[in-house]
Design brief:
This protein is α/β, with parallel strands linked by helices. Helices cover 33% and strands 22% of the residues. The protein has a four-stranded parallel β-sheet, sandwiched between helices. It starts with a strand and ends in a 10-residue tail after the last strand.
Length: 98
């Protein structure tokens, strides 16, 4: 099984969130892929849609996405360690240094 961690800023309605929702929906159907989502801000119009997928969602609940607390860094690194593939759906410059 391939464990894929998708990283997204939030669940606001838009192109990135819609693409991610469709992609994860297809990955759930494939028994070889286990998707999970790491979201920086746990808010947005599509939050309930993502929750209904029944996959693991790691929420950092960040108020300011350019200031990482130790707890956030620990959660990010833990999800990276347990993933076979990490897919960034938008660019966050500080995550690149981890």
């Amino acid at each position: 099984m391939i464990k894929v961690t998708h990283i997204i800023h939030d669940f606001n309605f838009g192109g990135i969130s819609s693409v991610l929702y469709n992609l994860v929906s297809l990955q759930i159907e494939n028994a070889l892929i286990e998707p999970q989502i790491l979201v920086l801000k746990d808010n947005g119009d599509l939050k309930s849609d993502f929750n209904s997928l029944g996959i693991k969602i790691i929420s950092l609940n960040m108020k300011h996405t350019y200031f990482f607390k130790y707890k956030n860094i620990k959660e990010i690194l833990e999800s990276f360690k347990t993933s076979d593939l990490i897919h960034f759906h938008n660019f966050h410059p500080y995550l690149c240094f981890l």
